[in-house]
Amino acid sequence: MRKFFTEAFAGTLVSDFCGAYDSVAAEDRQYCLVHLLREIEKVDERNNDAEWRAFAKQLRRLVRDGIRLRKRADFAPPKYPGRIRLINRRLCALAADSSALPPQERRLADLCVTTSRVWRPVAPGRGRSQIL
User: Fold this and answer.
1) Cα separation, 33 vs 31, whole angstroms
2) Surface-to-core class of residue 108, CB atoms within 10 Å of its CB (0-12 exposed, 13-18 middle, 19+ buried)
3) What is the pLDDT confidence band of residue 73, given thresholds at 50, 70 and 90?
4) What is the pTM of this model?
5) Are 123 and 72 in contact (CB under 8 A)?
6) Which of 76, 90, 125, 132 has the most Cβ atoms closer than 10 angstroms to its Cβ?
């Protein structure tokens, strides 16, 4: 990573879950929501437990709520602080309530604990993003 990022990235670094990206100095970070949804689908293929299904359903709903909010033509974080806080609170609560999940599935819940890495609303045209 250091070969490609020779200086600190002045923007929001959007990446998958590869740990190598943690070595990149960036102003802010966000996990790719599409990658998160794909991870949920992969777990769905191997886990049909009721606890997992309930967790996955809520997580999908929260991710899609965030995507819908961000796609609003009038979106700007200062305009929707209440909705942003609500999504973040719901993500934290969901992650905290996932102790019944098996260890592999718990990894997705752990990702939600750092909500700014899952849901980081950036206003259109504000800051740069780099998707990796």
Assistant:
1) 6
2) buried
3) very high
4) 0.73
5) no
6) 90
